[in-house]
Write a structure and sequence with these properties.
Elements lengths: L5 E4 L9 H13 L3 E5 L28 E7 L2 H4 L16 E4 L3 E4 L6 E4 L2 H18 L5 H10 L33 H9 L17
Parallel strand pairs: 1-2, 2-3, 3-4
Antiparallel strand pairs: 5-6
Length: about 210
């Protein structure tokens, strides 16, 4: 009601006693063209199989809200040994993208200082920031379109990059851990948004010019 177009939700829980009320709020946000971004959680769990709330799936129909992005946390493989953060939740069908969420230098609440923090609660604001950047420069784009842009511009890594299932030393690929199989990229997202046609529900990747 106050004009917000992007809402970051760095919180979560394993139960939701009044999910119907939360679903109504998500639908209300969708009706007002608001993009919601939610942290996947920090339990090294597959949330395809373990409950995590809030989530975009309707209590009544199971239908997925299109204005909702769930974010997992990535790490620097040169430091941690894996592109995925060991604590991050994941899910091939429930997590949309991964974003940097390990050793993020940020302000510390109630203290006049900075520290290296970690969590999907740090990764989600990264994606929210990309969404806000796109919506500030391209206000004609809808929440659903901005979500599609962020997802389609995500960087997909090949087998040369080590990726472990969080909490294990079992190798996998990012496409087995999230819906897009990618890590967000602000530059690629803005570039794609600039070539986007507002009549398209999904952004079209511009063709490379022949030299």
């Amino acid at each position: 009601d106050h004009g917000a177009k992007v809402i970051n939700m760095s919180f979560g829980k394993g139960y939701s006693p009044e999910k119907k009320w939360v679903d109504s709020a998500i639908q209300y946000a969708a009706a007002h063209d608001v993009l919601l971004l939610h942290a996947a959680g920090n339990d090294s769990k597959n949330i395809d199989e373990n409950e995590n709330y809030p989530n975009p799936f309707s209590f009544y129909t199971g239908k997925r809200a299109e204005n909702f992005i769930t974010v997992g946390a990535s790490s620097d493989p040169k430091i941690s040994g894996s592109l995925t953060a060991s604590f991050s939740n994941y899910g091939k069908n429930t997590v949309d993208v991964f974003a940097p969420g390990d050793k993020i230098y940020a302000t510390v609440p109630t203290k006049n200082q900075y520290a290296n923090l970690q969590g999907t609660s740090m990764a989600t604001p990264v994606v929210a920031g990309i969404a806000a950047l796109i919506r500030s420069y391209y206000p004609e784009l809808t929440a659903v379109q901005v979500k599609a842009i962020i997802e389609q511009s995500a960087i997909v890594y090949d087998e040369t990059v080590t990726i472990f299932i969080p909490g294990t030393k079992e190798k996998t690929s990012l496409k087995e851990l999230c819906k897009t199989g990618g890590l967000v990229n602000a530059f690629a997202a803005v570039k794609l948004a600039d070539n986007f046609k507002t009549t398209d529900k999904k952004p079209a990747i511009p063709k490379k010019k022949k030299k």
